[in-house]
Design brief:
DNA-binding transcription factor activity, DNA binding, DNA-binding, 2 strands, 2 domains, Four Helix Bundle (Hemerythrin (Met), subunit A), two-stranded antiparallel ribbon, Arc Repressor Mutant, subunit A, globular, mainly alpha, GntR_C
């Protein structure tokens, strides 16, 4: 893994650690190996600890008094509650995006959608999920509501490891792609009400297929 440039530091360190958690390189409940990561990223303890504070605020890690940090465990209740809030956040974002999205933002989402479809058709689930995530984030940004965007980012970090990394059954995958097709059509029509309802249903369906039964209460 390449060394981190000094002008990006704790924000980039936080991004790297999030990615390691999402990819299963750091598992829920495990300690964050600070010395190892400092060496791996080529940074001192100061930016690493600043990054851990950011991740703790997001609920991604837990700070342990005088004992470093560990990756937070997602409980069934936390995941369910977070998805319920995000359903309404994304629905509101969709309503606002339908009114406010620019032509450039629409073109970007369309391009991402076609890229996502190519991964679906080739069965590349990993890349499909990465582009899927970018589409949802782009719709939220298109709401042009800074408060909504900030709240969404914080909550999304907490559940991203489940939301955008879970294995999908062929039936659910096909259904999800159909819902994304409907999202793009609603955006093209500037129909925020329809887009909001699609996003709310889409998130509800995602919660239902998440691995809730494998989690602690």
């Amino acid at each position: 893994m390449e060394k981190i440039r000094q002008n990006t530091l704790h924000g980039e360190v936080a991004n790297r650690i999030r990615d390691m958690i999402d990819q299963g390189m750091l598992t829920p409940g495990s300690r964050v190996p600070e010395l190892q990561l400092c060496e791996q990223f080529g940074v001192s303890r100061t930016p690493l600890r600043e990054a851990l504070k950011v991740l703790a605020f997001e609920g991604v890690v837990e700070l342990l008094p005088n004992r470093g940090a560990r990756v937070a465990k997602l409980t069934k209740a936390t995941l369910k509650n977070t998805f319920e809030v995000m359903q309404n956040l994304e629905a509101l974002a969709g309503e606002l995006a339908g009114e406010r999205i620019s032509e450039a933002e629409l073109a970007n989402i369309e391009a991402l959608h076609y890229q996502m479809l190519s991964y679906y058709k080739s069965g590349n689930m990993k890349e499909y999920l990465l582009v899927n995530q970018q589409i949802h984030e782009a719709i939220v940004v298109a709401s042009q509501n800074d408060v909504l965007i900030d709240v969404y980012k914080n909550l999304n970090h907490r559940v991203r490891r489940v939301r955008f990394t879970a294995e999908l059954s062929s039936d659910y995958w096909s259904k999800a792609v159909g819902e994304h097709e409907a999202m793009v059509e609603a955006l093209r029509a500037r129909d925020g009400v329809a887009l909001g309802e699609i996003l709310r249903r889409h998130l509800r369906n995602k919660m239902e297929v998440s691995a809730l039964d494998d989690m602690a209460e």
